[in-house]
Amino acid sequence: MADNDTILTAARDWAGAPLALATVTSTWGSAPRPRGSHMLVHQDGRFEGSVSGGCVESDILATAAEVIAGAPFVIKRYGVADAAAWEVGLPCGGEIEVMVQRVDAEGFDPALFDAIAAAGAEGQAITLSTDRTTGRTTIGTVEGAFANRYDPPRRLLIVGAVQIAQGLAGMARALGIATTVIDPRARFLTEERFPGVTLDDRWPDEALQALKPDAATAVVTLSHDTKIDDPALVEALKTSAAYIGALGSRRSHAARLERLAAAGSQGLERIDGPVGLDIGAIGPSEIALSIAAAMVRSFHAR
User: Fold this and answer.
1) What's the whole-number mean pLDDT along residues 193-209?
2) Distance CA 293, CA 288 (A)
3) Of 14, 27, 30, residue with least CA distance to 64
4) Left, alpha or beta for 28 (phi > 0: left; psi -120 to 50: alpha)?
5) Measured torsion, CA atoms of residues 72, 78, 83, 86, in degrees rounded to the nearest 10
């Protein structure tokens, strides 16, 4: 589900108020938002999330108001807009199908927001199915229904509070990825250098054992200190982390793999080293960008 955190936060803040939930159920061509994207609409007109990036939101808001007022749930299809006729549509040339349902026991039960949040907190995915005839949503996969899978929130665990980590933490925050910077060196790990980021001063192996990276987690080692990076990689390889990256040259990475193999680590091919996509990055900020891109690619590939 796109914008998972913002939708769940809005649902919690607006609990008890009349609401409608719009969901992208199908896409064709250059659709601006992926299948499963949500837009939560309050009775007073406030909304959170997006189903098209702005192209059809006004029409969805009007439809949501009707549904909140008592109209039955509806599935609408939007195609290419005719600008001369001021028709609602998608200028990108794609098509989307959007379902709008009331947030109540007969539509999308408010308790389902809690179920999504609880599964995410446990690092688990949850699937909800919506009957396309009745508009009622239930937990589990139902044949013939629209099924939406909600993965746990994405996380990034950065080992090494170095300059590259500062840029990477900022990019991850902008991407909505919860970030923790791990470094036992107090002088490196400060709130001034990493504003708005969770800081963890434990040794990396201890921290990773406690944080339990899952399939929605990326682990990146950046300290360039084998005493810090190697224990983190040993622990990361024991998990289902979606992405494991390690900073260093090809020569230093080859030596790293030899050390990890000698320590008995398995699955060494999972380590992206040198870390990041090859974009010819120069300087800490560009290296951070290459790492962020590689991490996002791994999340989507999964």
Assistant:
1) 95
2) 9
3) 14
4) beta
5) 0
Cβ contact 54:137 at 8 Å: no
Pairing mode of beta strands 243-246, 271-272: parallel
Q: What is the pLDDT of residues 242-254, one digit of tens each?
A: 999 999 999 999 9
DSSP string over 205-269: HHHHHHH---TTEEEEE----HHHHHHHHHHHTTS--SEEEE-S-HHHHHHHHHHHHHTT---GG
**pTM to 2 decimal places:** 0.76
Q: How far apart are CA 131 and CA 298, in angstroms?
A: 32
Cα separation, 268 vs 270, whole angstroms:
5
Write out pLDDT tens, residues 217-238: 999 999 989 999 999 999 999 9
Residues in the chain: 302
Kindly state the average pLDDT of the residues 31-37: 77
How far is it, in rounded angstroms, from Cα 25 to Cα 38?
10
- Domains by residue range for the chain, with CATH: 4-150 (no CATH), 155-301 (3.40.50.720)
CA atoms within a 13 Å half-sphere pointing along the CA-CB vector of 238: 16
Taking alpha carbons only, the member of 295, 298, 5, 301 closest to residue 168 is: 295
CB 68 within 8 A of CB 101: no
CA 43 – CA 139 distance, rounded (Å)? 25
Q: Which residues sit opposite 106 in a β-bridge? A: none
- Does the pLDDT at position 58 exceed 90? no
Look over the chain and give the mean of its residue pLDDT values, rounded to a whole number. 89
Is the pLDDT confidence value at 82 over 60? no
Contact 260, 233 (CB under 8 A): yes
Strand partners, 158: 181, 220
